[in-house]
Amino acid sequence: MRCFDVHCHIQFDQYAHDADELIVKMGSDGVGGIVVGVDEKSSKKALALAEKYGHIYASVGLHPNHAPDEVFDAETYRSLASHPKVVALGECGLDFFRPVEINEEVKRMQKETFKKHIKLAAELDKPLIIHARPSKGTQDAYHDVIELLEEAKVVYPKLRGDIHFFVGGIAEAKAFIALDFTISFTAVITFARDYDEVIKKVPLTSILSETDAPYLAPASRRGQRNDPLAIHEIIAKIAEIRGENLENVRTVLFSSAQHLFRLH
Questions:
Q1: For labelling alongside 96, which of 17, 51, 147, 177 has CA 20 to 30 A away?
Q2: In this structure, what CATH number is given to the domain that contains residue 26?
């Protein structure tokens, strides 16, 4: 592998007819990836792909927007996460943007489910993949996640992970980095300039690359289904924004993914 997509969903129905073909092409193109679950069913599908292909890994968890429909069963997720090809817990966290109604009870329930992921990740010594989406015009979900992680680090000092699809500011990025978390960027950076300053200002070793496929195709194929092969364009854009050598950026991002997720 030469580069790594730390967050994709190629177990979703959008790939029902060509997932195997795509994964083989990823391998021939030097691309590895983590297939991320959002509930029990998709987590099991992610693990099945990871078991089948050497360059594919899995993460298992319950997305905050799926939590109202599924009770987080610690034993089920412990069993899944104990598999050696499962390298993280998540996608988990807080979403204050997408639910139809956000009130204190919804936030409380999301936080309780998130805390269960934190506890299990600490128990198994595996990183978290965190989804945090603030309400419009704020950074509220990030601030709440930071507070929860600060509390957790007192009890679980080895807790670590990645903040998926980071859209926060420099202050939030620095807070996560201080907590031993990386931040990852999607192909949005190929057509929007909102995140350039964060990408420039944080250490390269704290950045990871992801596609969040099938969503968020890069500028070269806007409006189409995305896939992990787009990781090349994302890495190239990170190098361009930072004004750094492409091969050096590629090497550092790959090394950081290997280190965080203990890839072999």
A1: 177
A2: 3.20.20.140
